[in-house]
Amino acid sequence: MFNLFSSFKLFPSLHHWSGYVICCSVCVGYNNSSRLPVLVSATQKKLIKMIKSVSRPSINILKRLSSTALSSQLEAETINSPKLSKEEEVLKHPDYFNVYNLFTVRDLFDARVHYGHKEGSLDERMLPYIYGSRLGHIIFDLDKTAEHLRLALNIAAHIAYRDGVILFFLRGAQNSHIVERTAKECGEFAHTRIWRGGIFTNANKQFGAVTRLPDLCIFFNTLNNVLLQHTAVRDAAKMSIATIGIVDSNCNPNIITYPVPGNDDSPAAIEVIL
């Protein structure tokens, strides 16, 4: 309830108004349903209109001020924020090279990536990646294989994007032609023969000059035979070279930087990963 007589206290300037007669109290409100019929002169109408319009301009002004302050703050932050380089923008994107869509779990299953060695040859360090066994053979959890493979592909893509040197490894004549062909198509390097120890750790003496070591080593099998680990895996770990490796059920995944659990014997499994 807003009494017109109280307006003289709230609005001292109204004392300068003249020529109006106050007949009764007038209810002033935006949601007031009980309005009393009153005798209002033309001057009173101007007075009531002025009183009603007092509260709204303050709200509108506050809105304009707040929006102006917010826009000014955003402009200042935009001006002061450092511009990101192309490499930094690539790093901020979770899947800049779209490697997550290169394959599906069904593709891995059709290539027999889930098929491991016999139960008796299982390395206990591979247990987190095992789904179970069937007919005496280890079965990999392809959901975990897909997760690790996507991470490994993303790492390889980032290194290749920055002109890093990638070296492919495979021990065995059965699938060596697949790896060598892929390395040639990518403009990278491959080693499918016997690895001599010290090539990484003593490269300057081995080659007689300062030698650039690879930025990433990709192993399509991490064992020289059934029992012995590939010598280059150990040498790469000594020189802090990042490694990606397909680790079968009889392998040790701990020394590989980005292990990919799966079948490392089947040509179809290697081709789907390549």
Automatic annotation (TrEMBL):
Keywords: Mitochondrion, Ribonucleoprotein, Ribosomal protein. GO terms for biological process: translation. CDD domains: RPS2. InterPro entries: Ribosomal_uS2, Ribosomal_uS2_bac/mit/plastid, Ribosomal_uS2_flav_dom_sf. It comes from the Eukaryota. It is found in: Mitochondrion. The keyword Ribosomal protein applies. Pfam families: Ribosomal_S2 (PF00318). GO terms for cellular component: mitochondrial inner membrane; mitochondrial small ribosomal subunit. PANTHER family: 30S RIBOSOMAL PROTEIN S2 PROKARYOTIC AND ORGANELLAR, SMALL RIBOSOMAL SUBUNIT PROTEIN US2M. Required for mitoribosome formation and stability, and mitochondrial translation. HAMAP family: Ribosomal_uS2_B (MF_00291_B). Belongs to the universal ribosomal protein uS2 family. This is Small ribosomal subunit protein uS2m.
